Amino acid sequence: MSQTSAGTKLLLFLSTDIGLGRLAGSIFDEEAKKMDVVWNADAKTVPSGAAEDESASQSDVQNAGLVIVIQRPESKVNLKTIFPGWAGRAEFWDLPLSSDEAVALRQNVANLMVKLILEGGKRQPTAETTVSARPGTGPASSNSPMQKNDAVRVQRESKGRGGKTVTIVSGLTLENGGLEALAKQLKQLCGTGGTIKDGKIEIQGDQCERILAELLKKGFKAKRAGG
Question: Is 131 part of any domain?
Answer without folding.
Answer: no
